[in-house]
Design goal:
Elements lengths: L1 H15 L3 H25 L9 H24 L1 H13 L6 H15 L1 H13 L1 H7 L16 H5 L9 H43 L4 H38 L6 H10 L7 H6 L7 E3 L2 E3 L2 H10 L3 H6 L6
Antiparallel strand pairs: 1-2
Amino acid sequence: MAAFALVSENFKFVSLFFKSKDVMIFNGLIALGTVASQTMYSVFAFNCPCSSGRNYRYGLAAIGVPALAFFLIGVTMNKSTWDLVSECRLRNCRKLSGAAAFALLGTIIGRAVVAPVTWVVISLLQGEAYTCAFSEFVNPSTLKGFSIDSSKVIAKFPCQGNVSMELKGLWAEIERQLKYESQLMGWMLVAGMALLVFLMLCVKRCCSPLGYQQEDYWSQYRSSEQALFEQTAAAHARLLAAENVKSFFGFVALDKEEKEQLAEYQSASPISSVEWNRITGVYLYREKKGLPLYSRLNKWAKYSLENNTEAMEKEMDVIS
């Protein structure tokens, strides 16, 4: 029972990072963009070298290098990546438990692999890159009417213009065999990813400490908070900049809306680095006296309202 409780405690962190609606919509857009990119690449950029020793490297590079680039871009553009970096830089990860670190890395990698996996699947289902890569490894003995045992000749088959008329008839059989292998691997990858997503959703439902309605509310809260924070931060930065520009020039050129904002808010006070650091970093679900704290900003506001900065500093950011 103790082992089960430990596993359940660890896996509940994973579930908290999977907000189904936002994640599915965002991942769907990423997948569609990747499909469009892969199609354009196949049409305009893919050209098999049709040379022994080069086909293999070029074909695998056409599948693997864009997938790696998409993965790195996905990691870089994920806000959680920089939350983790900030957490380690500001607090040396001392308040980040193993389960929380596992959950955080899981959501970063899970979001980042959508585009690479989509690229690999589409590449395999189209079969062009795989056919180019493995054409030179076709066993000549399996081809009827092919008496030349030479990988150099076979490697030229993807480029029909480099093959003699006598051998062109064999290309359809070779291409059919290689595309069968490629598409089989593609469908197996699709099945594997579908099974993995299904298992992760099962884990999410079974181990989540929150009910479905509260998880949905949390997702909406985080989205609203992020949107309002960005809008307010942009206005605050502009007003602060306007004050500094005005103090230097004696006036500042503002449009009508900005003048109305300046008249309404009067001034924008600078925010100390200490306060910025308190709302920056990794955060997982917490409660205070039975009431939920949905974000670092929510937690900061709660403790600030009580004027209890000491408790705010001592409060663990994640459950150990």
